[in-house]
Amino acid sequence: MSTVIRRALSGLLIPPILRNHSSVLVRIRTYSQETSHDGAPTGLYGFQHLKSPRGFQRFVDEAIERSTELVAYICGMPSAAEIIRAMDEISDKLWIPQSFVGILILTGPYLSDVFFSLFQPFLTKEFVEEANKASMRINDYLHYLNTNCGLYDAVKKAEDEGHLLTKEAQRAASYLRFDFEKGGIHLSGEKLEKVNELNTEISQLCQEFGQNMAVDMGSVDVFPATRIPKHLHRLCKPIYRSTLGMSMGSSNSTSNMKEKGFQIITDPATLSSVLQCAADEEVRKMAYIEGNSVPHANLGVLDKLIAVRHELAQIIGCASYAEFALKQNMASSPAVVMSFLLEMSEMVRDKADKEFNAIRNFKRQKSGQCVDLEPWDESYYTAMMKSSMYDLDSSVVASYFPLPRCIEGLKILVQSLFGATFHSVPLSPGESWHSDILKMTLHHPDEGDLGYLYLDLYAREGKYPGCAHFAIKGARRISNTEYQLPVVALICNFSGSHNSSLARLNHFEVETLFHEFGHALHSLLSRTECQHFSGTRVALDLAETPSNLFEYYACDYRVLKTFARHYSTGETIPEKLVESMQGAKKMFAATELQRQIFYALIDQTLFGDRPAGQRDTSSVVTDLKSQYTSWRHVEGTHWQTRFSHLLNYGAGYYSYLYAKCFAATIWQKLCQDDPLSLTTGTALRKKFLQHGGAKDPSEMLNDLVGGGGIVRNYNGGIVPDTASLADEMGLVDYNMKLMEGKREKHV
């Protein structure tokens, strides 16, 4: 799973017209894509106002002025179609200034890092001051919209007159009304005021949780330095301590000597590298315990967040925050989600237990002792087992994936599947945030330009450390003759620069690039009437499906051979090497799937019903780990205090598993036989990607695969069919039980 930014604004005080219906990313709205082709300077993303800090105020002013005109128009109760059109335009006008000036405050340090990295040339002291002023203005305006009964009444009118609307507009009216009510606008004045207070507190707690993670990453000191593998030295800070040693030339005197060691900062990325590569078990143990015991302050923050979200949900009329969060998803209720997770847990348990025993036996074989398998052993021994079984050398694999060839692979994929081509577009002065940025347009020979893609793929100091897809501009119909094209950006952190041939990706990074590209295609190929449903703005438990599907393309030899070339010889990647990569990927797939189920169970339990005498979060995590995995919990650790998905994915983490099941079924039923055919791509585009969130998800999925076998109705909600994933993972016994159960049901 890539470190894509998920549902970043969930639970915050955002007006319904701006609310993000997708799990994928922060969305930034733009008004037009106006690159100057004569070389004249422009502002960021082509916005003329964003040439200087003071332009921020005018940028916000114009958005508010136009939105105020639209609010007055809507409150005059025009036709239902005009209400929906105008509401969508307000969202279009306000989203980009809201994101630019509010995102730093609303979404915590990780998203702050993203935006600071994007706007490095602009972030002078004056720019920050102007952004803060704009933030205060726009937040006041958003509160006005959030509590505007005239807008709410107009939306209800549009919903009541739904027979006069297109199906997409009917859906928009329903979603807008529902989102207004999630903000409590239909409640009495006292209750509405309380809802606003709670939403503000939730925002502050989320911000505090993220700040604590950024400030307290934990560290361990390791002596001597030889205990740390050389290739990890770059991740560690050299430190020294005094020791007593014998003076040279004398057998009786001693002197102070400096012993070198390393300090390991246990941030998630460094911790992962240490756990995988450090042969010294004590080093791994120290790093694991420290990295899973910080920040301690978040124990209290998380308790408060759970309590405040529960109180919010109950005021709105829900039994739990999970019920509150899931109503518009396919699952529709916590009961449906829990049933699905328990089914998944049962499906994978036997194979995960076998994998656990295999890892434990391997450790005992290597150590020559009958020792227990510890949590800090998993990454180290599984990496060793994969390398031993498949004779894989990560540097050899990476030699076939120079980044320019991987970009070429994305172009080939789009050409084969959709008959479209990417063309490079020159950037105007001031349009991009760094010299590494590339810009391309997606062009179709019959349809013209489909959208624009910015690529910011190389690591640099101060840049957001993960990978993400940003929908800068959503697709929407402006008039009968005008259509607003989508603009998206992919942000990654691969070593090297575009002026160098040194950037070579390991296979996990290739998968990540294709994952993010799946999100980008969802946005670029969107052709919705409303930007409210554009691209990745879909039901939370559908949003990760395209990205998961395109990971399959990154693993299929028929795809890889079209672009994977050795960086020096030009040799096409050998099929046997790809088979080894595939085998290594599947080797502990059940363990990884079980881990994701465990995470989802934690999420559902913490935000589910709260019985009297609610236990602390660490007790919940300990019990669930014991019940649903073979791995022991380490006393005193509290991994959940760094589980940031509890903030922005509260009660929604199960969506990753929905997407995994959907993608497995789509791959097997539609793509596997001929993954690069235009027929396959046309089906993906016309039946799925172009609709964004404008159609019912289950209808789209069934239509895509030609009938049943991808979703099931259960207890008033929708769950994925798990048969394809079970088949892919070799869970034969489970599939047989599943088929027997279906036969018994029919009898």
Describe this structure in words.
- The protein is an alpha+beta fold and 747 residues long.
- The protein contains 27 helices and twelve strands.
- The strands form four sheets. The protein has a five-stranded mixed beta sheet with strand order 4-5-6-10-7, covered by helices on one side. It has a three-stranded antiparallel beta sheet with strand order 1-3-2. A two-stranded antiparallel ribbon has the order 8-9.
- α7 runs antiparallel to α10 (298-316), α12 (334-367) crosses α20 and α20 packs antiparallel against α21 (617-628).
- The protein starts with 54 loop residues before the first helix and ends with a helix.
Compile the SSE list and pairings.
Elements: H1 55-75, H2 80-106, H3 108-118, H4 125-146, H5 149-160, H6 167-182, H7 189-215, E1 219-222, E2 237-246, E3 254-265, H8 268-277, H9 281-291, H10 298-316, H11 321-326, H12 334-367, H13 378-390, H14 394-398, H15 403-418, E4 421-424, E5 438-444, E6 448-458, E7 468-473, E8 476-477, E9 483-484, E10 487-494, H16 507-524, H17 545-553, H18 557-560, H19 575-586, H20 589-606, H21 617-628, H22 645-648, H23 655-671, H24 678-687, H25 697-705, E11 711-714, E12 717-720, H26 723-728, H27 732-746
Parallel strand pairs: 6-10
Antiparallel strand pairs: 1-3, 2-3, 4-5, 5-6, 7-10, 8-9, 11-12
Helix pairs in contact: 1-2, 1-4, 2-3, 2-4, 2-5, 5-6, 7-10, 8-9, 8-13, 12-20, 13-19, 16-17, 17-23, 20-21
Protein name: Mitochondrial intermediate peptidase, mitochondrial isoform X1
Family: Belongs to the peptidase M3 family.
Organism: Rhodamnia argentea
